[in-house]
């Protein structure tokens, strides 16, 4: 879809009004990071980069959980299916991410039992249908998906399902945003905050970032007019010299977020240091299972004392893409050795990963 020609059912007049306002911007230069993978896709699809006024840049951020999960986590998952003989359940994109020695997809073609599920409850149901097997859910995602895994674990405990466990690689988005602001090599002037994670976190969650770092934040939805409204809201703040949190997605995101989801997270997980592809270790950014859930913690049950290589694929520059230091097309492997059909790095695997989105919509007005 090209925004200028085809805005679909989402309000062409509204959108063209937004585009005019975008073009009229005469404020300071600024780099806006779109934190979420879904925003990355929406921006690429509508050719948003080509509509931005001079001096305004859009950076893709660490909002794809598949992309930011480090290689050694996939090595752990591979160990579980190859050495521990478990049924490994995971979401679609994760099976194609290269580990140090192949992907889960490849392991499956060699006989490993890897199943794609659509939810954590599906994985729990799989365990209930296979009482003589161990089922491990490879749990990826931010505050969007982690509460559903928490709900599955609460149910597993309540129902006494003991052959189900979770290899948790869930991450908290706020500490990663803060780490990027503290990185002297990354200059972020404003954040387009993720719509989905914000439904759980609430818009207010970004206030400490706006206050402490003087960075404008705006929560945005995923339709073209939502993304444009978010960008305009940020440019308005930049122009006025403000740094606060605005919510351009009030139909889905409240100030306080989803209390029930926050409580489920709190009951099941505790915050711990976690490693991110590209960003290294970030304090308090991981969701580990609480000790009360040790019987359902795959790491404690199957991986104690096992070491993993975690070797990044040669030449892959996902780390720099994820920090907004280079555009995907600046990676020498982009669209040559690395394509969605044969991804070298994680960012090319998911259509919402930065490289995948740029590949799919390259040649649009986004330059
Ligand atoms: S896999 Fe898709 S939904 Fe999940 S984060 Fe990446 S982009 Fe977003
Ligand atoms: S193009 Fe491929 S190899 Fe290069 S950074 Fe993106 S995913 Fe990694």
Architecture overview:
The chain has 367 residues and is α/β, with parallel strands linked by helices. It is built from 15 helices and 11 strands. It has helices at residues 12-23, 37-45, 65-68, 71-82, 104-109, 120-129, 146-159, 173-182, 195-201, 207-213, 224-240, 259-268, 298-302, 318-322, 354-360; strands spanning 30-34, 56-60, 87-90, 114-116, 135-141, 164-170, 190-193, 217-219, 245-247, 269-276, 280-289. The strands form 3 sheets. It has a 5-stranded parallel β-sheet with strand order 2-1-7-8-9. The chain has a 4-stranded parallel β-sheet with strand order 4-3-5-6, sandwiched between helices. Strand 8, helix 11 (224-240) and strand 9 form a beta-alpha-beta unit. The longest helix has 17 residues, at 224-240. The protein binds iron/sulfur cluster (2 copies). One iron/sulfur cluster binds next to helix 2 and helix 3.
Short description, anyone?
With 367 residues, the protein is α/β, with parallel strands linked by helices.
Q: Which cofactor or ligand species appear?
A: iron/sulfur cluster
Task: Give the helix tally.
Answer: 15
Query: Structural class of the secondary elements?
Result: alpha/beta
Whole-number average pLDDT? 90
> Strand-residue fraction?
15-25%
Largest sheet, strands/sense/barrel: 5 strands, parallel
What does the overall shape look like? globular
Largest beta sheet: strand ordering: 2-1-7-8-9
Order of helices and strands: HEHEHHEHEHEHEHEHHEHEHEEHHH
Number of strands: 11
List unreliable stretches of 5+ residues: 1-9
Q: For the terminal residues, how far apart are their CA atoms?
A: 15 Å
Rounded radius of gyration (Å): 21 Å
Percent helix? 25-40%
